[in-house]
Amino acid sequence: MPLPQKEEHYTYADFCKWDDENRWELIDGVAYMMATPLVRHQRILRKLAIILGNFLEGKTCEMLFAPIGVRFNAESEDDTVLQPDIIIVCDKVKIERDAINGAPDMVVEILSPSTARHDRFRKFDVYEKSGVREYWIVDPESKTLQVHILEEGVYDIIRTYRDDDAIDVHILDGCTINLTDVFAD
Fold it and tell me: Residue 162's closest CA among 185, 132, 182?
């Protein structure tokens, strides 16, 4: 299948047919190409994945990481598929063979210079409207982490943590992450 064009409306079925080395996301049928992650991005992803993965060992929730599609409206238009950096799902029924079907409990996005606006606005709106209970935005440049907690359908509890803070994961009782460990080079 030809690669996506801006003016077309795409679905998950189209998304699955794209065969090239680029990664794509869909929001309301519009295709967005994802940037290749920088080394700093990958290091932060690895550190967070190890910490969260170790904490979740033997627990009900499961942590997965990109690239895997999360289908946010599979039961209707099936035209919104995102690939968050880290995904935590506590309802294993949502984990299918090829994708996550429905909103994860937690999503972590690590900003890249070319996609920061996309993560902070477009994806933020999808996560909020879909019911993602906890959304983290990690900024490698400023060494900060923004936490958004869903309360009554709105991300109204927002806090920014610095690289020397320790943070409790809201949806994972007893999980605390020292950001010094995450941002250390």
Answer: 182
* 3-state per-residue secondary structure call for the chain: CCCCCCCCCCCHHHHHHCCCCCEEEEECCEEEEECCCCHHHHHHHHHHHHHHHHHHCCCCCEEEECCCEEECCCCCCCCCEECCCEEEECCHHHECCCEEECCCCEEEEECCCCCHHHHHHHHHHHHHHHCCCEEEEEECCCCEEEEEEEECCEEEEEEEEECCCEEECCCCCCCEEEHHHHHCC
Count of residues for the chain?
185
Mean pLDDT of 105-132: 94
pTM: 0.93
Distance, CA of 131 to CA of 94 (rounded, Å): 14
Would you say domain 37-66+84-183 falls under CATH 3.40.1170.60?
Answer: no
What are the extents of the domains in the chain? 37-66+84-183
CA distance linking residue 56 with residue 63, whole number of Å: 7
Confidence label for 22 from pLDDT (cuts 50, 70 and 90): confident
Residue 168's pLDDT is what? 95
Q: Which residues contact 77 (CB under 8 A, 6 or more apart)?
A: 11, 28, 29
